[in-house]
Amino acid sequence: MLALCVRMMTVYNLMFYRRESDEGDIDIHDLVTSFSALEEKVLEQYTFAKANLIRTSAMNYLLNSGIQWGAAPAVKGVRDGAVELLHTLVSVHAEVFAGAKPLLDRTLGILVEGLIDTFLSLFHENEDGEFRSLDANGFCQLMIELEYFETILNPYFTPAARESLKSLQGMLLEKATENVSDVAENPGHQRRPTRGSEEAASDDRQQGGLTVSPDDLIALAQQCSAELLQDELERTRMNTACFIEAVPLDTMPGSAKEAYDLRGSVDSPNRYFREAPQPLVSALPGYSSRGKRR
Questions:
Q1: Is residue 223 classed as helix, strand or coil in its secondary structure?
Q2: What biological-process GO terms show up in the record (predicted)?
Q3: I need a labelling partner for 40 at 20 to 30 A (CA). Which of 117, 128, 138, 279 fits?
Q4: How do the pLDDT tens digits run along the chain, 294 residues long?
């Protein structure tokens, strides 16, 4: 339908240049107005249908992945579910690029903004369920994947999408700080099914006086990103190359440049915790450097 709309626009543009009389110009103006309204309707229906598919993929990514966010495993990289979620936007890119290229930026801008809003709504809807608690590993997993999304989809991030992303990151940070601090204050409530009681009790005594600040979690997320994001962009670049190929070098995030074997240095678009203070992370209980995903 998008392709049909573009073809019709081409027809009335040609007609516009062929008509010379004032009366003809008035007729063409009415035609342009009608086709513009049709274009808006087609775009609205197309993005609505795709947004529903993206919401389903986002639900699978956040809620049906099998991860318990309050007891998440160590971060090893970007999960397959994140790449599968991007595949829905890759399909949209292919369709619109082939049939209605002039509408590509606008279409993906609408859908990327909708994706971040979907993340926000899913988090709110499940605060008493899947996201009742969020530990340090879960926080870092989500933060590195949000940075992964933002780096790849950077050309299509609208100002509204960036604001929504900051809001989401802030809520995740608040939830994780609350949860990790509660564990530090009440270490006996944390389950350790694979460790002996004496070792667990020793850890409890060591962690009993710890306090965990948002800066500690931000620093930990930064460290995960520094260790893993570059390799993950490289590992998945064939899956997401369509979003990078048409981007001017001077606007491409630095991490994406390096992953695609390009030269230059630009700050990552994710400034929420890139520019945050970087305190030591030794206060975080149970933290150790993570091995990179292979």
A1: helix
A2: exocytosis; Golgi to plasma membrane transport; protein transport
A3: 117
A4: 555 455 545 544 544 454 444 555 557 777 677 777 778 888 899 999 999 999 999 999 999 989 999 999 999 999 999 999 999 999 999 999 998 899 999 999 999 999 999 999 999 999 999 999 999 999 999 999 999 999 999 999 999 999 999 999 999 999 999 987 665 555 554 444 444 444 443 344 333 445 678 999 999 999 999 999 999 999 999 988 898 765 444 544 554 444 434 323 334 444 334 443 333 333 344 434 444 444
Residue 7 neighbours by CB under 8 Å, 6+ apart? none
Number of domains the chain is built from: 1
In sequence order, the 6+-apart residues with CB closer than 8 A to the CB of 3 are 98, 99, 100
Q: State which residues form the domain around 141.
A: 2-274
Residues 186 and 207: their CA atoms lie apart, in Å, by: 9
